[in-house]
Amino acid sequence: MSQQPAAPAPTSTSAVATVAKRRDWWRDAVIYQVYPRSFADSNGDGMGDLEGVRSRLPYLRDLGVDAVWLSPFYASPQADAGYDVADYRAVDPMFGNLLDADALIRDARELGLRIIVDLVPNHSSDQHEWFKRALREGPGSSLRDRYHFRPGKGANGELPPNDWESIFGGPAWTRVTEPDGTPGEWYLHLFAPEQPDFNWEHPAVGDEFRSVLRFWLDMGVDGFRIDVAHGLVKAAGLPDLGAHDQLKLLGNDVMPFFDQDGVHEIYRQWRLILDEYSGERIFVAEAWTPTVERTANYVRPDELHQAFNFQYLATEWDAEQLREVVDRTLEAMRPVGAPATWVLSNHDVTRHATRFANPPGLGTQIRTAGDREAGLRRARAATLLMLALPGSAYVYQGEELGLPDVVDLPDEVRQDPAYFRGAGQDGFRDGCRVPIPWTREGSSYGFGDGGSWLPQPDGWGELSVEAQQGVPGSTLELYRSALGIRRSRPDLGAGDAVEWLKAPEGVLAFRRGEFVCVANTTGESVTTPAYGRVLLANEEVTETDAGEAKLPADTTVWFTTA
């Protein structure tokens, strides 16, 4: 594989026609997340870009995914890796320009791939023109009404307006210096201070984002992943929460700044816009909610199409826990007619090859490498289990290579804003964002000619696409085989239920039509019935003359009864 491949030439339209004819494609789609700065660098500046993504689209087609979700590439000061947007209609120069975005979308369509882009409606950058004008114009500016500016508490307004805490640590409020040089009002930012929250009660905010939706839909994108979809609406009056260490409450309670019922009216308005466009465009919610049942509220028939299943992502490699979250997910989605989604990794959590390498109970951000061999084995088994479930699945770039988290990055190279703020997220998200390896050799293992914005570890090349491509049993070929089988079999992905089969302790077994999946989550080999011909397994499965199958530790096997 060359270090810098040429941009893909247009291919046969047969793949495009096949995709175009698939109705409700998103119900069983496999969607691949590209983190642009870490995927492929076309110009050698050490930073991934849109032309780099475009050059690697044939790889994604050959991998067998249905759609590509791009993390933000908008104009941004990059205080939070692009999730602080200064201009929603422009591409940041580090990633290219609008012509590059247009070429990427067009090439993806030619290759039979759909493009989903990130949308960040909860907050903007502090360099957004609205916010800069709000600061320049001072108290009373109408632009301040588009954000949450408030006077402080205390005799001289020296205390924050309420007790809300930032997800990145510290108060969720920052005091501004007014144009005359005096300390002034405070503004709300649930994340970094460079990310002021919009006030969605102001009609101009809704008008702006409806316009942004149309801009990118007209450009040809197939959908939007909505960042912090649960955060747009705040409780009336911005009441105190009355608690500290508020991060510990996330995911357990409805917070006054998250998962407020008012968000659903916004998404009903957005759905009307999306439905005006042909081609089955979709919305995907990043919605951290206390329960999967509340997540289901976001995917009612007149709102969004999918919502990330964070409850599943956070589940340990444990048969009982996995069965419980699968059942709850399917039961919650069935009444609203939405597909379940399944995901194991993304740009905000430790890669599952490392999470599963560590003892259970450590959460989704882990600082230790753990048992690399066991972690990879479990990650491969978990992937086959995920891809056997009904609904849509998400794959994070590099997981198809079995990449671990880079847990030993030096402090001086870290860029996660949460790392530099006390009492917030652990701030170790850089470990899952290290640029992925394409070749065995090179200054950045094929990522680009000029190094990489985060250092890649020694030995990264042996995990590269080049090292694994065509190698039987490699993680890359396991993914390709699994995605090929899934696409070719109608009993995979479709539907909203599984038929559980009797299985030994620590083992999951379920049937879906002529397909049976058996997952051994234990550290020991187990014997189960051989439910037919073996289609695929992450480890070698031995079948006996007695009609049984011996599964090694941490092994998932797919059978067909046909």
UniProtKB/TrEMBL annotation:
Q: Does the keyword Glycoprotein apply?
A: no
Q: Does the keyword section mention Hydrolase?
A: yes
Q: Which UniProt keywords apply?
A: Glycosidase, Hydrolase
Task: Give the EC number.
Answer: 3.2.1.20
> Do you know which InterPro entries this protein is assigned to?
GH, GH13_cat_dom, O16G_dom_2
Note the SMART domains from the entry: Aamy
Q: Which residues form the signal peptide?
A: none
GO MF, any single term: alpha-1,4-glucosidase activity
Checking Pfam families in the record gives: Alpha-amylase (PF00128)
Write out the similarity annotation.
Belongs to the glycosyl hydrolase 13 family.
Name listed for the protein in its UniProt record: Alpha-glucosidase
Question: In which organism is this protein found?
Answer: Streptomyces rishiriensis
